[in-house]
Each structure stands twice: as structure tokens, then as C-alpha cells.
Amino acid sequence: MFSTRFALAVFVANLTATVALPADEEGKVERWSVSARVVRAVGEGVGIHAKKEPGAFTIPEGTTARSFKYRFHDPSSGLTLDKLSGSNIYSVTEKRYITEAADNPDLALPPGKYRFVVGGRPGASGSLSFEVGPGDDTSVVIRDDVPEADLPRDGRIALVIWSRENPTYKFHWDMAIEDGVVAGTGTLPKPLDSHVENYQADYTFGGKLVGKHIEGTASQRLRWEARLRNGGVQKHTYEGEGAMELRLRVDQTVVGTEIHSGRTNGEPSIQGRKVGWIGTWQLGREASEE
Q1: Measured between alpha carbons, how far is 158 from 169 in angstroms, rounded to an integer?
Q2: Same domain assignment for residues 62 and 82
């Protein structure tokens, strides 16, 4: 299984520190801004001593940050940038850099604490603005050091998971556990592409409980028809699989990884792509998306 962002790429290939208050109760979207800079630091020895002064910001629970605009300037070198890198935003909550921010116009940040960071020589500075509005079911807080839940060796588990890079599309998984053996089926909303017709998808999972987490192989088979500009139709298939590990935690959140490879129309199209998964889970047939 791989994120819908990858699936849509397959379709396209085959078809041709100022922080504002939270959004109000009525769901108003506000644009926030935060700044960071590099200053001269006092130190011993030869050379220029630089100190980074990041800008801290917090995305409140129930909201999501989107539509990022970035500006950086280093007067000593004349360097000016307007695209984020993978080291400009640090998640204090998840204790990692948001590497998926690099040149990503669809970046969305869930609730949590963050730092905006810039580099360069003393005098360099940057600004970051973004929209904060009502969150959706992807606005979960993934905290560090949350223990894994004790999963039943017999029962059912329902999950809703999405990739960190593209939280818009959510996979719904229904997993049955029998004596520690896990078998599941998944669904995903049809990609919103007017050129795609007769879309069909089969998602399956086979694995087992390993300690307190789930390990196994997620497989998928996609079939669709592409409507061409001349009125013709091309049929396509995608088959892929990935080694997946999912950790279901006591706060009903999910974190996981997958290494995915696949073939489009029999030809290799994705190889060893790593996907980071987050989401929610619960016992039963339908996972909560809140």
C-alpha cells in the first residue's frame, strides 16, 4: 500500500515569530506569521560565531496549518530563497524535522509545537506565514513516548491512516486477528481526476502480531481507464506491495512505516519508497476519524 499522492502520480504519468490567536469558533481561517534569524554569537577562537534564533509556534488542537509562504535572505552572500527545505521546520512534539516540507506546496501541519529555523551567516533572516483553520479528521496530535497498546490475539481492529506527506486521502482498514495472525482489507476514496474512469482497487494485508505491534505485507491492485483527449481510452493496472509496521498506541493513535514498490502495466514504477503513516484506531469495524 502506498499513499494516494503516489497513486495520483501514477495516473498523471500514464495520462500524458509573530503568532496570532487560534481561529475562532465559527471556523475562521487566519494567516499567521513567524520569523527566525541568525545572529553573531560571543565565542572564542578564530572565525565567525553564528547563533540561530528560531521562531516558535503552536498549531492548536482541532486546527491545521496550510498554504505556507517562505522568504529567506542572507545579506552577506546575497542569497534569497522562497522555497522551504526539509530543515526549516522542526516538530517539538514529534522530535523530528519536517522533511516533507521541502518544495511541497501541499504541506499541512497537524496540531503540535514547532520551531521555524534558518541558517546562514549572522544577519540572515527568514519569515514564514501560513493559514490556520479548522482541522479535519487528519488533525491528530502524535506525541512522543506514548506506549503501545496491548492488542488482542483474537478480535477485530479498525484503522484510518494517512501519509504525513499527503493527509488528504485516508485508507480505511478492517483487520481481523486470529491467534496472532492478522488479515485485513482496505478501502480508499476514488481519486478525484476527471480523466479516470472505471476505477477499481483491492487492498489487502497479511501479517502477524510481533510484541505489541503489527508487521506484515500490504498489497494493492488498481485498475482504471484513462480517457484521452481524442476520445480514446487506455486501460491501466498498478500492482504493488510493501513491508509495513504499525504501532497502535494507548491514546488511539497510530504510527507506522512502509517500504513500497510497484509496477504500472507490468513495468517497475516505484521502488523502495518509504512512507510514514499516522492515524487513529479502535477495536471494532469502524475507526474514529476524530
Answers
A1: 17
A2: yes
Indicate the length of the chain as a whole number: 290
Nearest to 37 by CA among 68, 75, 85: 75
**Is 173 domain-assigned?**
yes
Exposure of 139 in the CB half-sphere (CA atoms within 13 A): 15
Q: With helix as H, strand as E and coil as C, how does the chain read? A: CCCHHHHHHHHHHHHCCECCCCCCCCCCCEEEEEEEEEEECCCCCCCCCEEEECEEEEECCCEEEEEEEEEEEECCCCEEECCCCCCCEEECCCCEECHHHCCCCCCCECCEEEEECCCCCCCCEEEEEEEEEECCCCCCCCCCCCCECCCCCEEEEEEEEEECCCCCCCEEEEEEEECCEEEEEEECCCCCCCCEEEEEEEEEEEEEEECCEEEEEEEEEEEEEEECCCCCEEEEEEEEEEEEEEEEECCCEEEEEEEEEEEECCEEEEEEEEEEEEEEEEECCCCCCC
What distance in Å separates the CA atoms of residue 41 and residue 33, rounded to the nearest whole number?
Answer: 25
Name the pTM for this structure: 0.56
Same domain, 176 and 248: yes
Which of 66, 99, 134 is the last residue before a domain boundary? 134
In the chain, how many domains are there?
Answer: 2
Q: Are 240 and 217 in contact (CB under 8 A)?
A: no
Contact in structure between 217 and 239 (CB atoms under 8 Å): no
The CA-CA-CA angle for residues 239, 241, 247, to 5°, reads 145
The three cell numbers locating residue 145: 513516548
Q: What is the mean pLDDT of each run of 10 residues along the chain (290 residues)?
A: 40 32 54 94 68 94 88 95 94 86 85 93 96 72 84 92 79 94 89 75 96 95 88 91 95 92 95 91 58
Please give the residue range of the domain that contains residue 172.
142-283
